[in-house]
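The authors assume throughout that readers already know how a fold can be written as discrete tokens. A single example would do more here than another paragraph of explanation. An entry of this sort, consisting of the sequence and the corresponding backbone structure tokens, reads as follows:
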Amino acid sequence: MIAPTSGFPTRWLTPALVLALLVWGFPLAYAVGLSMTDAGPGVGGSFLGLQNYLRAFADPTFGRSLVVSAIFASGEVLLGVGLGFFLALGFYRGKRTRNWLQVALLLPWAVSEIAVALVWHSFLGEQTGLVNWFLGGLGLAPIAWKTSAVGAMTALWLASLWHGLAFSVLFQMAGLASLRTELLQAAELDGASRWRILRHIVLPHQRPTLVANALLVWMSGIIAFSLPFALTGGGPLGATELVSLYSYNVAFGGQYELGYAAALGMIVLALYAVFAFWYIRRRRAA
């Protein structure tokens, strides 16, 4: 019989801790050090202390990019989590077609974000896009998908929804799997309407899953890069320049300020850690 161990299992976790230090700890320490310099490509730079961080807090473009990121992530939550919940609810009731529809949703999720951007370029091009071609055939004005702030953000939301909807659907279906069917059957026998069942049984049951799903989607949207970079490039006039795109442009888009870009990344990482800590605390409390 193996005696139970007490305390921290250092003996068993040492290999994993060493690997984590190599692939996560050292790069993070390097990024923190880099964020306190004025380094550029091929130039070590001199030590600046916290000047890059103070500059970031006074940088209006960085502040705008944070707001743009929050708007994009919030739209992803409203569309993805909202639609994902109702689709999962439909799959929960319609079990015959559930497998085929799940496969249809999973196919876009398996495609890379660069490929997704290329697909949606063909749909939402202002001159040759299929959507504007269809609207023109109906005698309607074309939509400025790339040259208006609202159109560009809407294009990002649509492409992101098409690509990532499967995650929210599967997440919500996992929550609905633990919903006791006898509660629904009893409510139906008592004459409760579908709205009352949804409001008083399904939603309270799904609330922890909805919160977790929303937070994960929001956190993913805050640091999104590939899809905005390939689909809108941050335009027009910075209307879709998420904080990840702004940091990239600072580092490699002509400014070549690697130290300042690293400081921007550290600030975003700190904000990300706050939300992650809040999520973990909420999960433990639940």
About this structure: The CA atoms of residues 229 and 256 lie 18 Å apart. The chain has a mean pLDDT of 87. The chain is about 75% helix and 0% strand.
